[in-house]
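Exercise 3.2. Students should predict the tertiary structure of the chain below and write it as structure tokens, then compare their answer with the key that follows.

Predict this chain's 3D structure.
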Amino acid sequence: MHDCANDIRNYHDDDVKLSEDTRAKLRENRNANRDRLKDNLKEKEKPAPLRFQKQGSYAMRTTIQEINNTYDIDDGVVFAKDDLKGDRDGDMTALDARQMVCEHLKDKRFNKKPEVLKNCVRVYYNEGHHVDVPVYRESGDEKTGLKCEIASSDWRESNPVEINDWFDGQLAKKRSDQDDDDLQMRRMIRLLKRYATSRASWNLPSGFILTILLDEKYSVFDERDDRCFYNLIVAIKNRLAFSLVVRNPVQNETLTKDDPDPKMVALRDKLGEAIDKLKILFDGKCTRKQALKAWADVFNTDYFDTDIEECEAKASFVVTGEQPTQPVHKAGGGRFG
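Answer key:
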């Protein structure tokens, strides 16, 4: 396979992985959101949260760069069940709990007010991103067993801590001594998520489903990120040829919808197309230019254009003898906020 390992790693680091500055800004907004909710609840003499629970890709550190800062951050709020009481001292309904949280997250500085959705309250930030706040209630104790429920169409059992613990456990289990601080499994998840969102017209599964699929097939560290990613999409495509169903790894639920789920069918087919585009890498006559064009086509990116132009300039020099100019190479920062 034509070696583009350094190219794919650089692409990941520059254009896919969330920069630390952006992550810090998102964390700052998330914390301000938490403080606003606590202060407003206290002012109105409402119950204080037991805690906040980061979750989703932000907690897993698999968030990818987004055009126009359209980040989706998940940050749950957990209340004691006994504190969520209605006017007649009955248990607050799931909708009432979401509406209460929504009301106390409002801020006159927002251009768009927070909104109650089916599984969360969404807070829109003027910079373009939003924070989803799932609302949970907790009952029981360590002796009898704690029960955590999310305010959805009704209260249903769901514990975001279990997902975080599952993911951390999988990372620890599959970590290699050759890994650097940014684990390869995380890099592969980000690259898969970038591929799945590379075309606006595509409607593919959620990042959580992609994470589960990649976890199923990632087992051994590969010193080359390009080869690792190729082997993984082949393995995932073959897995989807056998079954399109994906289950939650910690809860008794199926995450995919109809059988067959159209998003899963689309993922299987799109992965097949990517594999076909990358077949040229196994041609012994494959040039660096051809290899980079194949990867650029797969990820629908212009990141490799400078290197492709350099290949063309060198080829022109071989044919005409004309000295090529030296293009400026990209180095860090990324194109997206």
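Discussion points: The first strand starts at residue 51 and ends at 55. The chain has two domains: 5-16+182-281, 20-159.
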